[in-house]
Design goal:
alpha+beta; Nucleoside Triphosphate Pyrophosphohydrolase; four-stranded mixed β-sheet; 2 helices; 4 strands; globular
Length: about 110
């Protein structure tokens, strides 16, 4: 969590209480990716720009309209449906034989 806290501060100027929501295995061909998904609550500080860009708050219902990686709206919907005390999820993101994105959660 310490590394995630540092990245949050560096890239946004914000501090927040972070908790693990889940992990997602992204099947990216020969080299896979394991994505740790965190939720930040009660942020403090002032948003700043960084080399990563200018962060901004986006209402939940507008995320699907943004130019984001294809599985992000699915992941955010999963987080949005979680309740306090839920165990972190484990999922997998991959493209099937018809090249259609599949995101499955255990």
């Amino acid at each position: 969590m310490a590394a995630a806290q540092r990245e949050l501060i560096e890239e946004t100027g914000l501090r927040a209480e972070l908790s693990l929501c889940g992990m997602l295995i992204v099947d990216a061909g020969e080299t896979g990716i394991l994505l740790f998904i965190l939720l930040g609550e009660d942020p403090t500080g002032k948003l700043i720009s960084s080399l990563e860009g200018l962060p901004e708050w986006v209402p939940y219902d507008q995320v699907a309209r943004l130019p984001v990686v294809e599985d992000l709206p699915v992941i955010i919907a999963k987080i949005h449906g979680m309740k306090a005390g839920d165990y972190p999820f484990i999922g997998k993101s991959y493209y099937d034989a018809e090249n259609k994105l599949r995101v499955v959660f255990d």
